[in-house]
């Protein structure tokens, strides 16, 4: 018979198949986006990055649901995210419009790639200590969605990349800088998906899918752009609340101190009267 202590000392080697298949599918989608952009299939490249976002959202949730989380899976997921949301969007944007700007174009693409790497490194080192309700900096999938949505929008509406190069450079650079910013972005983890909701919520979701299906490139680009703009607003609101709290606390302290002083004065007067 095999001793149970030997099993604990020598755990079985291997990896969990299901979540890593989803991670590999996301990695493949990001790699395919680069190849498609090199062949001037920019719409397919942009769609592939959005498909990579779906697989990225699924692999972690499937791992938690099936209790198949592992350190290997977490590291593999980060490396796949770097390809799909760091390298792929930058190269797709470069092959579409940034190459015409010369050195400025590839520098803008590099800023996005480097920012994605820094964003992922910062996220991995703060897991478990940061507030789970918020992301610090724009998440790399959301930044990739803005850049790929821009390319998809340009290819869908047949915009001239030569005249759109400067705007593409600005959008790519700003998306990269938002990833390494200190702006707070909602992680939507406080939403309780398992609770019951009114029937009208289902109708609202159907309406959302219909709107996205009518003009997917435009709607997705607008949605993620608004999400990117929400970070500065949330940060400003939280800083303002902290300042108001700090202003109110001294007033309360001063009020308590004045009450204590008046009580001491009353006690002194009573003692003198006695």
TrEMBL record:
Feature: compositional bias, Acidic residues: 264-274
Keywords, sorted A to Z: Lipid biosynthesis, Lipid metabolism, Membrane, Phospholipid biosynthesis, Phospholipid metabolism, Transferase, Transmembrane, Transmembrane helix
Catalytic activity reported: a CDP-1,2-diacyl-sn-glycerol + L-serine = a 1,2-diacyl-sn-glycero-3-phospho-L-serine + CMP + H(+)
Pfam families: CDP-OH_P_transf
InterPro entries to which the protein is assigned, alphabetical: CDP-alcohol_PTase-I (IPR050324), CDP-diaglyc--ser_O-PTrfase (IPR004533), CDP-OH_P_trans (IPR000462), CDP-OH_PTrfase_TM_dom (IPR043130), CDP_ALCOHOL_P_TRANSF_CS (IPR048254)
Main location: membrane
Signal peptide as annotated in the record: none
Record's subcellular location: Endomembrane system
Transmembrane segments: 15-35, 41-58, 79-98, 104-121, 133-152, 164-185, 197-213, 219-236
Principal EC category: transferase
Enzyme Commission code: 2.7.8.8
Region (Disordered): 253-274
GO MF terms held by the record: CDP-diacylglycerol-serine O-phosphatidyltransferase activity
Mode of membrane association: Multi-pass membrane protein
Family: Belongs to the CDP-alcohol phosphatidyltransferase class-I family.
NCBIfam families for this protein: pssA
Stored PANTHER family: CDP-DIACYLGLYCEROL--GLYCEROL-3-PHOSPHATE 3-PHOSPHATIDYLTRANSFERASE-RELATED (PTHR14269), CDP-DIACYLGLYCEROL--SERINE O-PHOSPHATIDYLTRANSFERASE (PTHR14269:SF61)
Designated name of the protein: CDP-diacylglycerol--serine O-phosphatidyltransferase
Organism field: Catenovulum adriaticum
């Amino acid at each position: 018979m095999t001793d149970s202590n030997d099993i604990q000392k020598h755990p079985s080697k291997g990896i969990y198949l299901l979540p890593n298949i989803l991670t590999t599918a996301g990695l493949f989608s990001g790699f395919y986006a680069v190849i498609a952009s090199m062949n001037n299939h920019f719409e397919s490249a942009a769609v592939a990055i959005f498909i990579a976002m779906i697989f990225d959202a699924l692999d972690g949730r499937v791992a938690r649901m099936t209790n198949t989380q592992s350190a290997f899976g977490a590291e593999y997921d980060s490396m796949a995210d770097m390809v799909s949301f760091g390298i792929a969007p930058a190269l797709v944007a470069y092959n579409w419009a940034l190459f015409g700007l010369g050195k400025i174009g590839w520098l803008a693409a590099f800023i996005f790639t480097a920012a994605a790497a820094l964003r992922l490194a910062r996220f991995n080192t703060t897991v478990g200590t940061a507030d789970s309700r918020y992301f610090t900096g724009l998440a790399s999938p959301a930044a990739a969605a803005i850049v790929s949505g821009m390319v998809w929008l340009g290819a869908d509406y047949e915009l001239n990349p030569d005249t759109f190069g400067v705007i593409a450079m600005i959008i790519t650079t700003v998306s990269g800088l938002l990833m390494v910013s200190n702006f707070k972005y909602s992680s939507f983890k406080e939403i309780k998906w398992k609770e019951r909701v009114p029937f009208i919520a289902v109708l609202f979701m159907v309406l959302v899918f219909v709107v996205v299906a009518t003009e997917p490139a435009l709607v997705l680009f607008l949605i993620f752009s608004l999400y990117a703009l929400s970070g500065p607003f949330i940060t400003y609101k939280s800083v303002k609340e902290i300042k108001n709290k700090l202003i109110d606390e001294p007033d309360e302290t001063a009020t308590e101190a004045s009450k204590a002083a008046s009580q001491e004065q009353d006690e002194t007067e009573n003692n003198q009267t006695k």
